[in-house]
Design goal:
This protein is mainly alpha-helical. It has one domain: Helix Hairpins, CATH 1.10.287. 84% of the residues lie in helices and 3% in strands. The protein contains four helices and five strands. It has a three-stranded antiparallel sheet. A two-stranded antiparallel ribbon has the order 3-4. The longest helix is centred in the last third of the chain and has 157 residues.
């Protein structure tokens, strides 16, 4: 459409859009300035048309303004401007589409990060639950060991008291034997055997007491080591629990950050979609206006063509009349010459 209109609005002299178009008597249209320059380039009064070579003598300012050519020039300029606006609008729509695609990719990446953060948070919660379970089991074991240690201490103390009582009884018996030895010499051998037996029993009791004390010492050392190990295990478990809680807090913070980023991206995506929808509505409105203006221009162009055809027919009729007038003039001129010759004769 623009190319068809451009061929009708182009000046054949300057090869540019018509500016202040003026029509010659032969109905060819040129720029007013081009016609004035054409007259300046000719010294004679009659200047031939650049297309059909029909002479004309009127000044450029006195020639008739071609209203239809002016309208076609305006329509051509409006059409080019509209096409330029449509091209810019298409570029903006493509840019918005690319931005929308990029935003969707960012949203997908954010969703992936959020899922990974949720998985890490779930793992941290599971780790915390497992550590709590281990800590409870360790505390139960520590309680059982403490109970067992107290029972062993009680047993050792009771055994030690029994050995003390036995030792006291042995010492008493030894004292009685010494007393009997002093009282009677006759029962010396029996007393000596009993004395030896009592000494052996005393030594046995002393060894048993020493063994009991050594066993008690070992039991205390074992309980102390177990307590140290349990305290170390409890400290490590507490540190691991604190680490798990810290990782859980970091995971929560990361999840909140991702959620805020997701909300921002979703709001930006919504705004972008709204702007895209508005641009699309504007484009549809512009296309509708362009179609209406194109239909109007086609109608005006049809009317202009009809008028050009009518003017061409009128021009042919005028030329035929002019030829007939020339023939009549020639006939009348020849008849006048004949009359003159006849009079002269």
């Amino acid at each position: 459409m623009a190319a068809a209109v451009g061929s009708l609005t182009e000046c054949s002299i300057c090869m540019d859009d018509l500016s202040n178009p003026r029509s010659l008597p032969c109905h060819h249209t040129f720029c007013c300035e081009c016609i004035a320059n054409l007259r300046l380039s000719h010294t004679s009064v009659n200047v031939p048309c650049p297309l059909c070579r029909v002479p004309f003598s009127a000044l450029a300012a006195d020639l008739r303004t071609d209203i239809y050519a002016e309208e076609l020039v305006r329509v051509s300029r409006d059409t080019r401007a509209r096409e330029l606006r449509e091209s810019r609008m298409k570029d903006e729509v493509e840019a918005v589409t690319m931005q929308l695609k990029q935003t969707e990719d960012e949203l997908l990446a954010t969703k992936t990060d959020l899922e990974e953060t949720k998985n890490a948070c779930e793992e941290a919660v599971a780790e915390k639950h497992r550590l709590n379970t281990e800590l409870a089991e360790n505390r139960i074991q520590l309680t059982e060991l403490e109970n067992h240690s107290s029972q062993v201490e009680q047993q050792l103390e009771s055994r030690l008291e029994q050995l003390d009582r036995n030792m006291t009884a042995a010492e008493t018996r030894e004292f009685c034997l010494h007393k009997q030895q002093r009282e009677t010499l006759e029962q010396l051998k029996n007393a000596e055997r009993r004395h030896e037996a009592a000494k052996i029993e005393v030594q046995t009791c002393r060894r048993a007491r020493e063994d009991a004390e050594a066993c008690k010492t070992k039991a205390k050392q074992s309980c102390h080591r177990l307590r140290q190990q349990l305290e170390q295990t409890e400290r490590e478990t507490s540190e691991r629990l604190k680490d798990a809680e810290r990782r859980q807090e970091e995971a929560k913070t990361g999840a909140e950050t991702c959620q805020r980023a997701k909300n921002g991206i979703e709001s930006s995506l919504t705004e972008t979609k709204n702007s895209y929808r508005k641009l699309k509505q504007q484009q549809q409105q512009i296309q509708l206006e362009n179609s209406k203006q194109t239909m109007m221009l086609e109608m005006e162009l049809g009317e202009s063509k009809k008028e050009v055809i009518s003017l061409t027919e009128q021009l042919a009729t005028e030329r035929l009349k002019l030829v007939n007038q020339q023939d009549d003039y020639k006939k009348s001129h020849s008849e006048g010459l004949v009359n003159v010759y006849s009079r002269v004769e």
